[in-house]
Specification:
By secondary structure, this protein is mostly helical. Helix content is about 85%, strand content about 0%.
């Protein structure tokens, strides 16, 4: 379920988010398969979301 949501979000991101589009294009230019590059975008999105959550907790003073 989460993987499906990330997959659809990554497809949208590589179309409309310039930084993720450039990341995807760079991987494709290095010879990575489309699905491999897309999964890398999915992982990068998770890392970004985790960092935002972590930083929000620090700003709010949550343990």
């Amino acid at each position: 379920m989460v993987r499906e949501a990330l997959y659809m979000a990554a497809l949208t991101a590589i179309r409309y988010e310039p930084r993720l589009r450039a990341f995807y294009a760079g991987l494709k230019a290095k010879g990575k398969a489309s699905k491999v590059a897309l999964v890398a975008v999915m992982r990068k999105m998770l890392v970004i979301l985790n960092a935002r959550k972590r930083d929000a907790e620090v700003a709010l003073g949550c343990p």
